[in-house]
Amino acid sequence: MINAHPLPDMPCPIGALSQYTAQRVRTAGWIHAVRRLGGVTFVILRDGHHMVQVVIKSHPGALRPETVVYVEADVVDEPRAPGGIELHRPTFDVVSEPANPLPLDLSGPRVEAGLPTRLDWAPLALRHPGSREWLRVTARLVQEFRQALSQEDFVEIHTPKLLATATEGGANVFTVDYFGRPAYLAQSPQFYKQMMVGVLGRVFEVGPVFRAEPHDTARHLSQYTSLDVELGFIRDHHTVMDVLARTLRAMLIGARVEAPELDSWPEVPTSIPVIHFSEALEMLSLALGQDLCQEPDLAPAHEAWLGEWAQATHGSDFLFVEGYPMAKRPFYTYPDPKRPEFTLSFDLLFRGQELVTGGQRLHLYQDYVAALASRGLEPESYEGYLMAFKYGMPPHGGFAIGLERLVARLMGFTNIREATLLPRDVKRLVP
Amino acid sequence: MINAHPLPDMPCPIGALSQYTAQRVRTAGWIHAVRRLGGVTFVILRDGHHMVQVVIKSHPGALRPETVVYVEADVVDEPRAPGGIELHRPTFDVVSEPANPLPLDLSGPRVEAGLPTRLDWAPLALRHPGSREWLRVTARLVQEFRQALSQEDFVEIHTPKLLATATEGGANVFTVDYFGRPAYLAQSPQFYKQMMVGVLGRVFEVGPVFRAEPHDTARHLSQYTSLDVELGFIRDHHTVMDVLARTLRAMLIGARVEAPELDSWPEVPTSIPVIHFSEALEMLSLALGQDLCQEPDLAPAHEAWLGEWAQATHGSDFLFVEGYPMAKRPFYTYPDPKRPEFTLSFDLLFRGQELVTGGQRLHLYQDYVAALASRGLEPESYEGYLMAFKYGMPPHGGFAIGLERLVARLMGFTNIREATLLPRDVKRLVP
């Protein structure tokens, strides 16, 4: 069971090789592809981040793709090569070879296989340089999200994912056998982030949320990563919208560097246009020639139309729609004091699709008691949550971004699974 | 249901008030305590981060603790006051008042209640300044962890928490009703982080892990936050220990500022002493006058003795014990090529208790097949995991830090629940 292969010192990452031109360096990685041109063999070596071309004048022997090797070679300037360098006069040290023939060809510009196949073989398929870029985009988005918020004194929290009651969504909740009694997987950290506004004032969380979503569609997952924000002492939902715009701007600027060749990368404008829900319906009624003014929500086609309108009128990929009707928002949503059938909530549309939902929440205990009663909900099931409001809470609000959805939209993926590491859905629970 | 109270613009955070001395400023927070001294009333105002003293010459009326107020007042230099400033000539704008009398007194130097009571009332009890400090320590530790690793080209990942098979621990796993079939909550991201070494080379994750731990002790939780790291192309487990030492050093230096008055805050020495497991047993046998050399693991009393030894001999709070026997380590652990009954794994002890576990893993497919067979495990249950090794993996290893355990040790808490936001255990599932 013991590997007889030598374990040399840490090799130089491929991305750092260009600092060592005209020197002999030890690097390492996977054989990505082998190409022969005239009498010369070009081996493309890939590590976790970069690739480099290794030039072999003599016959290289068998170097099968996905073989792991250490390579000692001369680093040579070569402006025509990808990355501006090449490796010459290599000696290869084989660490491990693929045990089976590869089920997928990773050497082309993309992995030529349908999404289900790529998901089945994800530990291999994700190694393709074009198939793993979104993972670094994702990491960078989250890094910028945290940094932007930490600079404004938000504190990161880690909340329970196991709950005693299925309070938030009702349906679509997973049940866990919790030492013989039922518990439920959290569908969001909504209640906890609100509680914690009472403790820390401004909080955020990056964590998994769970939805027992029985529909097998391109946008539903059983687990996704939610970027949650909540803050106290807001003026109204506009304070929340300001925080969201600042945060998203920082995220998109920062993550841009991880996908430099994508040409449709959006910018968050200095001022994102805002339209009231009722105004949106009026515009849509006029434009589409039908009376939509009593609609309780925006249909996807309506969001798409509004996205085009925001682009045409404001040159913006983003549009805030504020004031959604009470009927379609959760019980903790703050009603508009001037028009109580509407709320101080918002959606942020990106190119005509909803990307973020947020708003101001109720903060007075008696308002919660009344809101629960008006929806026929039992206050007893909300005891821990209500405790925060019972002992003094400020006006507060927040928002949640679905990370995989954001990444899919930025990368131009049509199926959210392409932006999800080992997705879970009604049919898929492996690998 | 609509709050008739005015919603003014965003108030100045208490921590920023000292920038506005001799000016009239609008701030906000909770009434933390009210104290009368002679004819003067001192109101302590608390926000999510800081506190300030408000001086009232006339009678203030009823200002009950935990009332949320906006305060307009003059900021006055006062070297004797906490924070160096006071607020004078205040006017108060009450936003919300506690609906019930407070079940806990938050105005003293600590919350005078047992841990179960404080956990039952956590949304309130955590507001106490001394009871929330660990939350900022936690956030800062995680921030430094991520930053240190990102600088070394590690990529953050978010892996599935719902699994098709209970492969890792066997026992202590929670079962989920997954659309009518069983699924299991992840006990660690171990398999996934290894897979992702094949994709990204160096990865980390910060996320919840789940253990159906039936014991009601001071150190067991059903959910905790695991800081997981894994990297490829290591020399051996010493590469992993180097990464851990660097990362932990950055974490402790950074988080120090969030708990400035703790006087037992540790430093990670430039070189953490390392002792081999067998050498540790020899020393213990000699010191304790009993033959321990065939023991398969270290008992807590032995770890404590080693902690004192490290302190006395090396002046170090930290001690690496390497080379634990194969029998007590998971099947993926890399055996010591020179002494195959031992492994290239380690524990990091902090003041005589295990804080981190890590090591080198197997990387050859045939070694995995043999290791599973030797433990009577079915390779079929490990198909997705084994796929990574089937197609070429480098020597790799990693470690995992239990976040709540680390924070409890740093803060001097004897029960891990004091460092856990809303802990979950065999008895507790609320709030």
Word description of this protein:
2 copies of one chain form a homodimer. Chain A is of the alpha+beta class and 431 residues long. Chain A folds into 2 domains: 14-96, Nucleic acid-binding proteins (OB fold (Dihydrolipoamide Acetyltransferase, E2P), Beta Barrel); 129-419, BirA Bifunctional Protein, domain 2 (2-Layer Sandwich), CATH 3.30.930. Helix content of chain A is 27%, strand content 26%. The first copy, chain A, has helices at residues 115-120, 122-125, 129-150, 190-200, 237-255, 277-288, 300-314, 365-374, 383-390, 403-411; strands at residues 24-37, 40-46, 51-56, 68-77, 85-96, 155-156, 162-163, 175-178, 181-185, 202-210, 223-232, 274-276, 318-322, 345-350, 353-361, 396-402. In chain A, the strands form 3 sheets. The first copy, chain A, has an 8-stranded mixed beta sheet with strand order 6-10-11-16-15-14-13-12, sandwiched between helices. A 5-stranded mixed beta barrel of chain A has the order 1-2-3-5-4. Chain A has a 3-stranded antiparallel beta sheet with strand order 7-9-8, with no helix packed on it. In chain A, α3 packs across α5 (237-255), α3 (129-150) crosses α10 and α4 (190-200) packs parallel to α9 (383-390). Chain A starts with 23 loop residues before the first strand and ends in a 20-residue tail after the last helix. Mean pLDDT of chain A is 94; it is low at 1-7. The interface between A and B is large, with 114 and 115 residues.
